[in-house]
């Protein structure tokens, strides 16, 4: 045991507690036919919890963690602390980037040796833990070599480096029994069209993702391949802007049946959407997979990655998750970080515990709304005309026939209320 979380015990479900406990999240509570833990499938993000130094665009490191440093001993200590936190929170999953878990070497080969050694170490930790790997991914954005992208880089050697990195991360994810593999194109975009060949870069990105899918089948990885949409930040324009953009990309390269979405609340907001919009769209297109649960500061206008605290927003998100059939290989990953003034170990536990409670409250509200059925009944009523014989016939007709029918039948439609305020009031009964 390390002494980072000294004197702290595993959190329990205690709705009357005034201390550090779960007041709403009871992993063993059966809701809608399954344990809450099996519905929500919580995961801790290795990068924000253990690798992030507490900086922001205007200031540097504020955290002073005993495992910070570019050595293997520090990496092992980081893993020890991480699994202690997983146990304190009793979370079923965690997620990582390669750069989170190993120090950077002077060469690709040295970095790979460090990575493989740490994968073996994580495997040993997992054998003694109840926490499994939800997904792995590659960091193809932090190092200066990726300043012009990874798969979309104008330098073919960067493409090759990136492909080799993803190959190794997929191998590691498979070895650790990960249930998904995620690609987030943090630098797959452009700053100016003056030096950008859009068609070439899209072709590179498309072929790269095809290679990912080909390699998945080659190694027998049974998990899902997930793409995480991200707009604008840090590039002026990202090729994976939102769910709709990514779906068009997948269709172009014949990947719509091979790749699903990992959708983040904060990214949805930056794209000008709501979280529930992105979830509903992905589900309607058949590409919903998993979620990153966090929130943005709506005054800041950038990706602040804060822990969720808005029950109504979370309820609407899980309502769409439930309508999509719930998670299969996916889950709820807290892609969230402490505020740079929250320095203490207890802050890290409290941030996750509070977020898990918010998600539990929102999830139970979503279940209640769905079981109540009023929202879905009113939605069905609004579109009932399309289920009639006349409505169905319209889509099999043509303009000339429709125009004649409008004249012959004296059709004179009148607008009907969308009842938005009534619907919002219904939601408020549950949240």
From TrEMBL:
Keywords: Carbohydrate metabolism, Cytoplasm, Isomerase, Magnesium, Metal-binding, Xylose metabolism. Gene3D superfamilies: Divalent-metal-dependent TIM barrel enzymes (3.20.20.150). This is Xylose isomerase. It comes from the Bacteria. Mg(2+) 2 binds at residues 264, 267, 303, 305. The lineage of its organism: Bacteria, Pseudomonadati, Pseudomonadota, Alphaproteobacteria, Rhodobacterales. Its EC number is 5.3.1.5. It is found in: Cytoplasm. The keyword Metal-binding applies. PANTHER family: PTHR48408, XYLOSE ISOMERASE. Its cofactor is Mg(2+). It catalyses: alpha-D-xylose = alpha-D-xylulofuranose. Mg(2+) 1 binds at residues 228, 264, 292, 335. One of its GO terms (molecular function) is xylose isomerase activity. One of its GO terms (cellular component) is cytoplasm. The keyword Protein transport does not apply. Binds 2 magnesium ions per subunit. Belongs to the xylose isomerase family. Homotetramer. GO terms for biological process: D-xylose metabolic process. It comes from Antarctobacter heliothermus. PROSITE patterns: XYLOSE_ISOMERASE.
């Amino acid at each position: 045991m390390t002494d980072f979380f000294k004197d702290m015990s595993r959190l329990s479900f205690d709705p009357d507690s005034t201390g550090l406990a779960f007041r709403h999240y009871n992993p063993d509570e059966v809701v809608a036919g399954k344990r809450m833990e099996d519905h929500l499938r919580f995961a801790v993000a290795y990068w924000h919890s253990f690798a992030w130094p507490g900086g922001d665009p205007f200031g540097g490191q504020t955290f002073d963690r005993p495992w910070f440093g570019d050595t293997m001993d520090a990496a092992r200590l980081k893993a020890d602390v991480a699994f202690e936190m997983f146990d304190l929170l009793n979370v079923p999953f965690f997620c990582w980037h390669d750069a989170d878990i190993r120090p950077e070497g002077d060469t690709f080969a040295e970095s790979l040796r460090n990575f493989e050694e740490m994968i073996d170490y994580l495997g040993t930790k997992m054998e003694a833990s109840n926490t499994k790997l939800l997904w792995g991914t590659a960091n193809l954005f932090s190092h200066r070599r990726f300043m012009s992208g990874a798969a979309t880089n104008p330098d073919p050697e960067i493409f090759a480096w990136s492909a080799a990195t993803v190959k190794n991360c997929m191998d590691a994810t498979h070895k650790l029994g990960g249930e998904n593999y995620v690609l987030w194109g943090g630098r797959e975009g452009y700053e100016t069209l003056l030096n950008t060949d859009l068609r070439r870069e899209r072709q590179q990105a498309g072929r790269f993702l095809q290679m990912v899918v080909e390699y998945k089948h080659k190694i027998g990885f049974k998990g899902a391949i997930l793409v995480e949409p991200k707009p604008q930040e840090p590039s002026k324009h990202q090729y994976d802007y939102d769910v709709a953009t990514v779906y068009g990309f997948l269709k172009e390269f014949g990947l719509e049946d091979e790749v699903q979405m990992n959708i983040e609340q904060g990214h949805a907001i930056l794209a000008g959407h709501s979280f529930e919009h992105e979830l509903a769209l992905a589900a309607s297109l058949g590409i919903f997979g998993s979620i990153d649960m966090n929130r943005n500061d709506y005054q800041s206008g950038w990706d602040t990655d804060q822990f969720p605290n808005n029950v109504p927003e979370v309820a609407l998100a899980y309502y769409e998750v439930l309508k999509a059939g719930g998670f299969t290989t996916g889950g709820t990953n807290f892609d969230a970080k402490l505020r740079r003034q929250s320095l203490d170990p207890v802050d890290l536990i409290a941030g996750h515990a509070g977020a898990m409670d918010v998600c539990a409250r929102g999830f139970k509200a979503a279940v209640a709304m769905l079981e109540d059925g009023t929202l879905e009944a009113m939605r069905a009523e609004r579109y009932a005309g399309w289920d009639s014989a006349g409505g169905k016939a319209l889509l099999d007709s043509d303009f000339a026939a429709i125009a004649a029918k409008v004249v012959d039948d004296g059709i004179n439609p009148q607008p009907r209320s969308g009842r938005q305020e009534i619907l919002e009031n219904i939601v408020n009964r549950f949240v």
